[in-house]
Amino acid sequence: MTVENCLFCxxxxxxxxxxxxHQDQDVIAFADINPQAPQHILLIPRRHIASMVDLTAEDxxxxxxxxxxxxxxxxxxxxxxxxxxxxxxVGPDSGQSVFHLHFHLLGGRKMGWPPFPPSSHxxxx
Length: 125
Ligand code: 5GP
Ligand code: ZN
Description:
The chain is α+β, with helices and mostly antiparallel strands. The chain has two helices and five strands.
C-alpha cells in the first residue's frame, strides 16, 4: 500500500530516489540523507504504518523482519562487533519528522547515553 505524499512510501515504490541498501517484500533499508553517524541506515516496512503507535500484535512478523534485517545489515556493514543503535522516534518530543514507521540503524562511532536534548535547548522538557 502506497500512501500519496508519503516520502518513504515514495522511496519504497522507487518513485523518489534513495540509496537502497536492501529490499525484500516486507522491508526496505536505505541510507539516511542527513547521516548522524558513519553508518546511518533507515529501515521501513513496505506497508505504510505511521508510527509505532499504529502497530498491533498482528504486526509481530514485520517487526521481527525489521530487527533481523537490521542485525544482518549491521554485520554486513562491519559494525556487528563494534555495536550500533536501533531506534524509532515517536511524536514531537522525540523529533519524529517523517510519519511512516522507520528505525534508525546508527553505528561506526561511540554513542551518547542517555540521548541528551540539543545543546541549544536546556529545558527540562
Ligand atoms: P525522524 O526524525 O522522523 O526519526 O527521522 C527522519 C529521517 O529521515 C531523518 O534522519 C532524515 O535525515 C531522513 N530523511 C528525511 N528526508 C529524507 C529523504 O528524502 N531521503 C532520505 N534517504 N532520508 C530522508
Ligand atoms: Zn508511507
